[in-house]
Amino acid sequence: MQSRRTTFIAIILAILIIAGFIALVAYSSTRNKNTGTVTLYSAPDAMTMLMDGKKVNPNGTYHVKAGNHTLKASFAHFVSKTSTFSIKVNEKKTVQLYLSPADDEGRSYLSLHPNQDHKISGISGAQTQQMYNQAQQKITFLNDLPWIDQYYRIDYGASQKSPNDTNAVAIYITYYSDAGKQQALDWIQRHGYDPSKLEIIYQQGDQTFEQ
Fold this sequence. Notes:
The longest helix has about 35 residues. By secondary structure, the chain is an alpha+beta fold.
């Protein structure tokens, strides 16, 4: 009788273990069908980071639902920042975010924590390069910039219309006369682009030149 009871209990335990395993596989399969993986890499490390309103480690890896997500970062004496990212099912993505000092105390913090200053510089440089690589695929003449002429100069830089979009880029035109401004626009048109469809930021310069 004792042997039968032991066998019965063993069978029940085996059934429960198998059922739990099946449930775990089903859960993992469902999660993988609807999520991606995002790794956050941020500085300063001590910042407060919210992802979709929930506090998270600013340097961690998370499974998140496919779609759009919002990050909000803040730290005393640094400029707060809001950033968005989108992720696809099964996609693995790294999002880098840094805060800039807002006052002397923020700058003093970086002086006392040079490793954080170095990390910020690294993230900033990587984002600039990423912005250029992605923008260059859309605007091929970025390879020719800066373009410096006697009457104008053409550069590129961060977008002012979409400051939180790391893929957005603006064309900066510095002109020294109205004629120079038009010549800069003509240069862009000769490269096959309609200036009205680009984000162009004009800056009037004070350069003087001989006629």
